[in-house]
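Box 3.1 A note on notation
Throughout this textbook, protein chains are presented in two layers. The first layer is the amino acid sequence; the second is a token string describing backbone geometry. Keep the layers aligned when reading.
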Amino acid sequence: MSVPTEALNKVKCGVCNKYLSYFPIHIDKDKTAVCGRCSELLTDDKYYVRDGPYETMAQFLKFPCIYNSEGCLENLTPIDIPNHEKNCPYRIISCPLDCMWQSTVNELQDHFEQLHANSILRTGEFEMDFLSSYETYSLLIYKDEVFCFKRKLDEAREILQVSIFCYKTIDPVTKYNYELTVKNNSNSLSVKFPPKSAENFDEENVTEMNVEHVKKELNDPLVIVGSVKIYNKDEKQDTVAKKNPSPQINFDMLSELECPVCFEYIIPPIFQCITGHSICSACKSKIVECPTCKGEIKNTQNFTLEKMAFLLTYPCRFSEYGCDFASKPGQIKQHQKYCEYGPQSCPLADYENCKWENASKEVYAHVVNAHHDSILDIDSVTVFIDNENYFQTEDQICYILKFSSSLFKLHYRYWNDTFYWAMQLVGPPEQARSYKFEIDITDNTKNNQRIFLRSHCAPLAEKDQSFDVIGTYVFLKRDQISFLLTDMLTYRVRIIK
């Protein structure tokens, strides 16, 4: 039974003004009620007593989520309230950086992309700074989940503390761990720390390192690089599932999660019509009424069904084409983005206006047949600079390279007196950092001079976004290489692993 709407305003905390749905409930001598969210504010110099009669009655009632004004439509009994409020995807959070931003946790990644892009650890690697005390936060993305990565250096004690917290915007069931490794700049020496939980910033989940010990173990390098690996406890089972997925999949239960529009198994988030029929998030935005009962479709999310879905193993949606991968919802979504049996757009679509789409394993054959002039068969590229007019305009071109069995997309751009290069892996983004690329500027003046650049490869991005994020490209100012230029710019390209 839900609390009547007219009674909700009468059952609110006298401190935070939120519903008295979070136990324990206390009252003071003035009969002011204090909810369990504010328990730490109870002081010894004021008389409080536990309101047992209220709790006895309210334990069977369903209260709206305190984030209902943000879009959450859940109604829960007090026993479920604490866990739900902790993980509600509509909960309000503050930016972990020195920023006034506040909004729902679902908006956090977009906020970082717009204002703190340099604080997103896209590959899990970061440089260590031991010069002075600091406390800093970064954002990590793993299998579409958002993690807050905290680093705190105490210069006086020479201790660096690292911890990670998962906001759980997608998968409320899976428990995540993280593992920290530090290396010297040549990657020849490393120190690996024991895994810790990524569930919160509690003391027991902190990886603590002694700065002097780390420097000594790494032979006191000029630069120390940290690397964070996030994983879940089911990953070993996932590996088995890839080889033999059928025993892991309960098709009878999955059939109850079939979307009535696209007929695919619904992967959370799961929406429903006013009658209760489930619809996947992709189809919800395409229709105005339920195809089963013609009922209205609102922004109603079935959180209980989602929790059950995260316990199931899903087959890849491209299994009928030969893929035998199977995993939990969070991992299956990431896999399907880059499944070699799934559809892949032409990597030159934003340069050639090509509409081709087919299985990932067919991409290279398509490029060979339809865009052969864009394949970089040799490692040397020449850009003709006929006259001064070249430097007054913008020039962009793209090449496709094949290294080992992987494809790469090389973006070249000249704009605003600057030459830019970005090398992107056409494949799973988490693998991009495994590769590096080199740009070697050739001396066309024959004075035996050279400029050499090296950086990590980046995940695939659209043409207009390839040079948005610092660290995903290299660049040189025109005046830096003018002494190497004649009527052409020549550079060599290499990919290494």
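The first helix runs from residue 5 to 8. Residues 92-233 form a domain with the Apoptosis, Tumor Necrosis Factor Receptor Associated Protein 2; Chain A fold (CATH 2.60.210.10).
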